[in-house]
Amino acid sequence: MALPQTEMRPMGKPILRKEDPRLIRGKGRYVDDILLPNMLHLCILRSPYAHARIRRIDTSKAEAAPGVKLVLTGEDLAKMNLAWMPTLAGDVQMVLATDKVLFQYQEVAAVVAETRAQAEDAIQLIEVDYEPLPVVVDPFKALEPEAPILREDKEKKSNHIWHWEAGDREETEAIFREAPIVVKQDVRFQRVHPSPLEPCGCVADYNTATGKLVFYVTSQAPHVHRTAIALTTGFPEHMIQVISPDVGGGFGNKVPVYPGYVVAIVASLKLGVPVKWIETRTENIASTHFARDYYMTAEIAATEDGKMLALRVKTIADHGAFDATANPTKYPAGLYSIVTGSYDFKAAFVEVDGIHTNKPPGGVAYRCSFRVTEASYLIERVVDIVARRLNMDPVELRLRNFIRKEQFPYRSPTGWVYDSGDYEKTLKLALERIGYEELRKEQAEKRARGELMGIGISTFTEIVGAGPSHSFDILGIKMFDSAEIRVHPMGKVIARLGVRHQGQGHETTFAQIIAEELGLSIDDVVVEEGDTDTAPYGLGTYASRSTPTAGAAAALCARRIRDKARKIAAHLLEVNEDDVVWDGAAFSVKGLPGRSVTMKDVAFAAYTNVPDGIEPGLEATYYYNPPNLTFPYGAYIAVVDIDKGTGAVKVRRFLAVDDCGNVINPMIVEGQVHGGLTEGFAIAFMQDIPYDADGNCLAPNWMDYLVPTSLDTPRWETDRTVTPSPHHPIGAKGVGESPNVGSPAAFVNAVLDALAPFGVEHIDMPIYPWKVWKILREHGITE
Amino acid sequence: MRTYEGEFTIEQPREKVWDFITDANKVGPCVPDLIELNVENANRFSSRVKVGVGPIRGKFDLAVELSEVEPGSVMAMTVKGGGMGSGVDMKAEATLSDVEGGTLLKWRADTSISGPIASLGGRLIDNEARKIIEKVFANLKTALDASA
Fold first, then answer.
1. Which tens digits make up the pLDDT trace of A130-145?
2. Best mutation target, B56, B84, B90, B119, to test chain A (most A CBs within 10 A)
3. What's the complex ipTM?
4. Which end of chain A is less crowded, N or C, counting CB atoms within 10 A of the terminal residue's CB?
């Protein structure tokens, strides 16, 4: 039971989340909570080798093991033409390996048994004879002529997947030739993983009597999953129902289709009973899609007085064994060309090369719009280095180069049209709130005493809300989104959307949008997502796209309902439709505010007293194709102190001033910012997935891949400015990912600001204490 | 791939040491934490051993093959096997030379470990693998000394 909050005109109010009474009392229903009669359990045998030929697989002992109902290998799937499946990036990926494995923990065989324990035990009995092959871990070595070719199935005999570029090469080169100052820096964004609390999993339930497949899956994009399943298996799409129940965190990890899903479906089709597959933590980190893993080199051409003229970026992208990055077809490096950021460069040129290595596939948008975090981190890091070389305050350099507010809509040198912004206002608010001048004074005093204190700034611009259909698609499906609203006779509303929340608070925010548009209380509106049999088709929740797309669809769908309601109101008020005015709460007669009817009156009439010529009922559907993306931005400031003895960095203060346009629910925005900052903090200081030379994953668990607890996490301060998006129906922009996109650079810039006296310009993340300690020792600061 | 190496002197003539280290019946029992040993012929044996790295405890099945590279002085040993979803591949070589008072045995082992044991053992694996391999050669020395 949700808490009653009979708030009218709810837009912009910090209304408590309708989903919380369910979720915080443990009453959420996640995929592993689904228990069906006769349900069996699936476990997957994975490769210990990063690269090996499979000589032979003997499943006889596993088949004879207690409780085992089915053992599947790649050969079994090949007979059904299912040994390979398409990826979201237009490549193919092995479901279960046939002739060779390409990464450690790759799926090799599967066992279905009566209990999970039986299935786990039985996979140990499968004998696989591997012939180890030379392993390629480093993407630069993958390009060397003597490197083994990993993808023998592909026509192109190279580990190079694609080359992509944006901007104007010649114009950029011309500026660089003349530039008085050129700053160049290599920056690595390490391989990380979204690592949601709930790993991936599904229950495939094929009903032999009805011929229908119900597929429960922890999914950020249930409609896309339905279509992908239909495309992969040939199963008729109208006989597939995908249900994404409560999702225990996604962060991009739950957009792709994983081999375990296909195997569970095949097993249920073969056995005619439900089959459940739930990953272990290690399987989640070591085999499902990673994020980042970019090797970036940026060069900035500038004048001596601090005007940045041009940007040149070269990037090697490690995509692992299969090209499975979740990006729109046209953009293999996502929206990475947003790398010019908040600055008015005359020209820019960006190149990215995708490379195969013996690592798991991926490149998901981990709490960021496609590859935007990499871009934002790079530009914000290198701008700080430019400031250092010019001996300028990083604030001053930023203010001198910002896109000015009168330049919006602004066309960037790589072709994006920024919708709105006032970067100077936002940065100045942040400087004032943090007390920048005093902090610099304090820092100078501390430096004189030999203490290490740093202040780091990041003034990022995001690009979210994919997207206009002419440019954006997933698997060819255009990236619109949708809402369907039904108003019942008693004036109560059910709204269904094509997106699928995983903690973003859609049940509350979308209810606020709809209640606001219809003059109802949010208690009158229930929001439902995640069931493809009931919700209209949509592309899902990731890349901060829900409010920009489905939020817009919800507002416009409600307005469509209001248009019809006006006709019915005119009938009830016995006036011409032109004489009816809507004041946000009721319809009244122009000039006679006392004569009015509410939306509830109209709803009842829509089923009981409909005028001739009007269809009964009160419902509408809206598919929204945004005219452009939205460009949220922010100014973040971190203040750190470094322990000279250990190199440990303490984040003393962190202020995030965000501008995400109009805010629907400030409490939810603040919560999203807190969550994203915590993830950005983890990436900056704790997280990395390294591989040894044999391709062994060295962080496939939460002992080695660290997730911050409340004890590790600094206290967050937040504020905001509001620059509405001019093209969004309610002026909103999306915020879920800004803190993850914008914060890593602020943390790292702060650490390097503290180390400035030693001339250190860059350290790659994660900034472990030992990295700082080594530098301090080299400079004789510590023993 | 990790490489481990070492050397020791045995107070015995080279021929005797050679005969010992090329005989599966003699080398087999030198594998530490042995649960089961099955000598197939003079050059081949298989064994089941207890393994523990970090939080992982379990059993490995290993197939070992001995071969002569340079009769009387250089022999090779390949070890292949695994368990618990993990694999181990090792190529070791032992070189004998005459020194005052006996025979010098120099050994070198190139080892690849794969699977969860390499991942989960994380940074512990290097020391653990070194310990096991050193133990093999320490056992060899003990057995050789005892046979003197």
1. 999 999 999 999 999 9
2. B119
3. 0.81
4. N
